Amino acid sequence: MYPADYRYTKQHEWIDVKSGIGTIGITDYAQHELGDVVFVELPKVGAQVKTGESFGTVESVKAVSEIFSPVSGEIVEINSALADTPDKINTEPHSSAWLIRVRLGDAKEIAGLMDAVAYQAYITEAAAGAAH
Amino acid sequence: MRYLPKSPSERKQMLDATGAGSIENLFQSIPEKFRLREALPLPGPLSETEIIRYFQARAAENAQGYSSFLGAGVYQHFRSVVTDALVQRGEFLTSYTPYQAEISQGTLTAIFEFQTLVCQLTGQDVANASMYDGSTALTEAVLMAERITGRHRVLIARSVHPEYRQVLHTYAKNLGLAIEEIGYTQSGQMNASEISPEKLADAAAIIVQSPNFFGVLEDVPALGKMAHDSGALLIGCIAEAVSLGIVRPPAEADIVAMEGQSLGLAPSYGGPYVGVVATREKFVRQMPGRLAGETRDAQGRRGFVLTLATREQHIRREKATSNICTNEALCALTATIHLCLLGKEGLREMALQNLAKARFAQAELEKIPGVRRVFSGPSFNEFVLEFPRSVKLINAQLMRDKIIGPLPLGLHYPELTKRAVVCVTELTSREEIERLAAAIKRILETPL
Amino acid sequence: MSLKTTESETPAASGEAREHVSLNEGLIFEKSSPGKRGVELPPLDVPAVDPAAALGKAFARDAIEGFPEVSEIETIRHFTRLSGWNYAIDLGMYPLGSCTMKYNPRVNEHVARLDGLANAHPEQHADLAQGCLRILHDLEKCLLSITGMDAATLQPAAGAQGELAGLLMIRAYLESQGNARKKVLIPDSAHGTNPASVIIAGYEVQNIKSNERGQIDTDHLREFCTGDVAALMLTNPNTLGVFEERIEEIAAILHERGALLYMDGANMNALAGVVRPGDFGVDVMHLNLHKTFSTPHGGGGPGSGPVLVKKFLEPFLPIPVVRHDGKRYGYDPKRPQSIGRVRAYCGNFGVLLRALAYTLAYGPGIRQATEDAVLNANYIRKHLEEYFDLPYELPSLHEVVFSDARQRAHGVNTMDIAKRLIDYGFHPYTTAFPLIVPGALMVEPTESESKEECDRFIEAMQAIAREAEANPELVKTAPHATRVGRLDEVTAARKPILRWKP
To answer: What chain C residue is nearest to B112 in terms of C-alpha separation?
Structure first.
């Protein structure tokens, strides 16, 4: 379910780094919690993102979720296709529904993020907690 | 008490079921020192008959049976009794905000129709389900322009309704928004030469009202071009919606802020009225207020729902496009029904009558020695006249003839003393106009 | 049975009886036909004027494309049919928490339409508007008496606008003391308009958590109430329907630090005639006349949000301020410290008038309405405690908040239960609010409900609780008895269609 070569944050973002470019999206867990996605608000190409800061929002009918960047860097690409098909976030959260691509300021940043196994454990625990 | 559907025995039964022992016990959570021991010293209780008498007495203390030449943002127009018959139906009057769409299709369908009518009238792509009034609609339009452009200054014509400008100032003060006022020319229109490209470079919008407070129509296309050439928006404000029956809407405006009181709402001493914000499709997610949208249920039946709610306060909270919750829904319904009754031809005919009567009145009044028209720009149903003496004094004497005279401009425009804005609508009869002219002539002939 | 979309099928071809058209009423634009009209004006008694000639071609417009063209009877039928698709207080209970959906007295509608009042122009000379001015003045006096405050403005058009006006007055006062400060504290149980209003007033929002009793945690309050804090915005009773038992302490903490206590008066229906906010330390508050004071909701408005203040805030009231000088009513001309206007003219006069009519009907007996409201809420609570989880076991005043915790075990949530309640002939209660209760069911019956109506509501809720266990699918796919089923809100948000097009 969760690609082994991605890294994950506690706010349910994933990042896939290749050649210094990080592709960022939200996880399947996040899309499930959110429900049907109706709109995505993304920043502009060229903007800077900072680790832990919000760079956009994902909206369902009744909720708005901020998306936090796992890294710092410059945005080199945004997924404009999501403007017409925001529902892709529900069906393909880990692949075609990536949100932004960032040129990493510091490649070592991702070392602090969870791997797929750790993330899976994290969300299992979160789900158990919610069902009290 | 007739509004309380409980008999003493029912109260007792219910109280016993709660196990509380006494009504007093149900209020135990309120510290005893604060609980009132005596009934409040309020007037009443009044029976239905007495309530009616009280308000009839108040009505009699107001002007009744007077001719009125007041406009200035609130207009006396024909209102069909059919509208009231429909609006007073309990299913409309006593219904709640349509959050539960399945049992609110009446309200939602009517809102969708209202939104459509406003788009048709103003030439914009989308309109919301109402704001409080024209003044707050304008303020919200300005805040919208700020969000869209990221700029924090606006240029507003002095010929925009003075109270609308005051409201904007009250809101803008704490939001770091700079407001610069632009004067008017001899035509009574916004003085475009006061607007430089430098001023526009960091302006979110130019704001103009048409017809403006002087009744004059503004050169919207020119102002639109000026704004857009500098990356600013044009906000078109409309206080007299009936003008849209024959006057071209502000098509170059990016956002329209309109007051809909003219469309079947009673003047009612200041409210409730109905404001509306209309705009281009691309700005829809920056709009304040509720929006009704069309959709289907699982069986494919058409229905309507409140939509794009993530803009609003109940979801977005401090990041909402506005803090508005309760709006003017019943007033919007009133306007909707009124416009359906008038229809394409009726609205046009009403507007034509306004124009004709205003031109007639202008001609009659200009015949009076010492009275002359002030602004040269084209006007709809209001125009500014200059008088040889204080308008307040003239109006005081007109009152004795049971005439409510035109609004003196000196209070809001210190440079325009002895001038007043005269309003004439389709309800003003020829006889009333002639009587006004005769009375003013007589008053002016009498030495002070 | 499949109900087609609203275009009518041609009857002749099928030869079958069709569903009566009132179930399939289209939009007014779909009934239009050129030349039809619903209103005829009296003939023009002055010479006609050609608009293109009079205004100039640049200003003239052609006919409005797509504008309705229907007759009077079609208009009557159209809107009468639409009205049949609405639930309303006149039909039955709205158990919506913090909305106070009470009976809208009809005499109020009658007096609002009296000619001298309905046709009064706000710019009329005060000599010709003494009746209107007295109505404003009399209402102010009543509201001040009920709230125990010192001065009022009737100008704000709704509660949210009242909040803004109140916050602006707080700012103006603190500025006059040398420091406007930066933040306003808001409990996590607050209505969404509270934080939204704070931002417009130029302050930052600082959320404070509720304690395990669902109320303001006074230790946190002490900690958070720094010199930067201008005010705390409190709803009392709070959105759980519970009175802030430490209200005195809360007020003291704020006042010691030079901060103010703002009260959101949305829940005044639990207090009127029983206790006055002015007595328990409130500095400024708003009322919702369309809640506590019976003015009709009309599908979403109009409302009115008067703001009441203690004496020290009186100089900052918005203009215009109504005064009686001993002889006449008028507007106070000198208000140098006023925050300005929050809207054009004096307020939603037609709504204010109705609120006064309501208050006069009750007089000093207003307490009875409050007692009945609290009795109804507690009666309902008692009968539903066995069926629904009660997250806070504290005394309820005029509303009670349950949660869907028990029903969740069967996959049924508060939204589902609410939709199923529709099948029993009720409007849903407030779902999913306040935010501090996950899966909330917020019930406020108001005093307008008879014992019979309360019993019917209780029976319905008990039946649904049983259905949630025995037949959860039935609840999850509700409503079943309405003209349309659950509507696709997702597509409505993804691809908004916000107007009719030809």
So the answer is: C499
B207 to chain A, closest Cα gap in Å: 28
Contact: A61, B285; criterion CB under 8 Å: no
Residue C117 lies in a domain: no
Contact of C488 with chain A, judged by CB distance below 8 Å, is answered with no
Cα distance between the two ends of chain C: 29
- With respect to residue C405, please indicate whether it lies within any of the assigned structural domains: yes
CB-based contact (8 Å) between B309 and chain A? yes
Nearest C-alpha of chain A: how many angstroms from C26? 26
Same domain, yes or no: B287 and B156: yes
For the ranges A115-129, B239-253, B328-342, C460-474, which has the lowest average pLDDT? A115-129
Q: Does A61 touch chain C (CB under 8 A)?
A: yes
Buried b (16+ CB within 10 A) or exposed e, C435-451: ebbebbbbbbbbbbbbb
User: Does residue B203 lie within any of the structural domains?
Assistant: yes
Domain assignment of residue B422, yes or no: yes
- The 3-state DSSP class for residue A78 equals strand
Which residue range is the domain that position B432 belongs to? 67-78+344-445
**Chain A residues within 8 A of C494 when measuring between CB atoms:** 38-39, 86-87
Instruction: Tabulate helix, strand, coil % of chain B (nearest 5).
Output: 45, 15, 40
In a domain, B27, yes or no: no
**Alpha-helical regions (H) of B385-429:** 391-400
Residue B32 lies in a domain: no
- One domain for residues B258 and B393: no
A92–B contact, CB cutoff 8 A: no
Domain tally, chain C: 2
8 Å CB contact between B266 and B106? no
B307 and B380 inside one domain: no
Q: For the complex shown, is ipTM > 0.95?
A: yes
Q: Is C46 on the interface with B (CB under 8 A)?
A: yes
Whether residue C52 is found in the same domain as residue C99: no
Q: What is the pLDDT of residue A130?
A: 59
CA distances from C91 to B113, C76, C84, C86, C449 (A): 25, 21, 11, 9, 11
Does the structural domain A7-130 have CATH classification 3.40.605.10? no
pLDDT band, residue A70 (cuts 50/70/90): very high
CA dihedral C434, C440, C441, C443 (to 10 degrees): -20
CA distance C206 to chain A (A): 18
pLDDT at C20: 67
Task: Name the stretches of chain C with pLDDT < 50.
Answer: 1-12
Partner chains of B (3+ C-beta pairs under 8 Å): A, C
Whether C494 and A86 lie within 8 Å, measured CB to CB: yes
Touching C: which chains, 3+ CB pairs < 8 A?
A, B
B90 and B216 share a domain? yes
Tell me, yes or no, whether C121 lies in a domain. no
Name chain B contacts of C196, Cβ cutoff 8 Å.
313, 316-318, 320, 322-323
Identify whether residues B378 and B303 lie together within a single domain.
no
At C95-124, the pLDDT tens digits run 999 899 999 999 999 999 999 999 999 999
Q: In chain B, how many domains are there?
A: 2
- Whether C63 and C98 map to the same domain: the answer is no
- Structural domain boundaries in chain A: 7-130
CB–CB of B240/B157 below 8 Å?
no
Calculate mean pLDDT across residues B332-340.
98
- State the nearest Cα–Cα gap between A37 and chain C, in angstroms: 8
State how far residue C453 is from chain B, nearest Cα, in angstroms: 10
CA distance A56 to A66: 6
Contacts of B287 in chain A (CB under 8 A): none
In a domain, C360, yes or no: yes
Q: For residues B130 and B201, state if they share a domain.
A: yes
Q: Coil, strand or helix: which one is A125?
A: helix
Report the pLDDT value the prediction gives residue C16, as an integer from 0 to 100: 66
Looking at the fold, whether C58 and C101 belong to one and the same domain comes out as no
In which domain, by residue range, is C336 found?
91-106+129-482
pLDDT at B236 over 80: yes
- What is the rounded CA–CA span in Å between residue B290 and residue A53? 30
